[in-house]
TrEMBL record:
Species per Swiss-Prot/TrEMBL record: Actinoplanes cyaneus
Family: Belongs to the KHG/KDPG aldolase family.
Domain of life (superkingdom): Bacteria
Quaternary structure annotation from Swiss-Prot or TrEMBL: Homotrimer.
The name this protein goes by in its record: 2-keto-3-deoxy-phosphogluconate aldolase
Pathway(s) the chain acts in: Carbohydrate acid metabolism
Amino acid sequence: MTDSLDPVTAAIVDGGIVAILRAPSAGGFAAVADVLVAAGITALEVTLTSNGALEAIAGLRRRLPAATIIGAGTVLTPDDAKAAVDAGASFLVSPVLDALAGQSVPCYPGAYTPTEVYSAYRAGAPLVKLFPAGGLRPAYLKDLRGPLPQVRILPTGGINLDDIPGWLTVGAAAVGLGGPLVGDAADGGSLTALAARAERAVAAVAIARS
């Protein structure tokens, strides 16, 4: 159910995928975003470790359809958070909790243990980023949701396309996909191959939820 969520988080949960754009330079993000949106992925996270990330957020906000949700990732300080929101970010993602306090947009902090997950939830996070999820199995999330069914979890980090159904069927609200989805497309790699991966990811969400 998403009726109790803010509109941004509800749209992310409905779509099932947050595409994470990370590269040494954000110069290729516009072309990547076009392909992702055309394939049906409508939530994009621009990581602040990419050179030119703030400019890319502002540019994508102008370029893409209004229904596309543009957020900022790897937000590590309150100053990072403010700069990202000022650039047009509609949500913020961080591997830590304290950088996101007091922001005006939905914030999804990172957590790994049950204590960290519940602390993030208690702090008001509508989604909690389970990170890094690549070394875990979906069974971990299933066990975690036993005592914490009220917490919406966004597994992120090292999730392959084949892993999507497994995470969603045990209760993930959505999944964050970086390298396995975007690959080298932001660095001059094949956009055709990117489109095929994006379409595969969207199909995996549909199958898992059917």
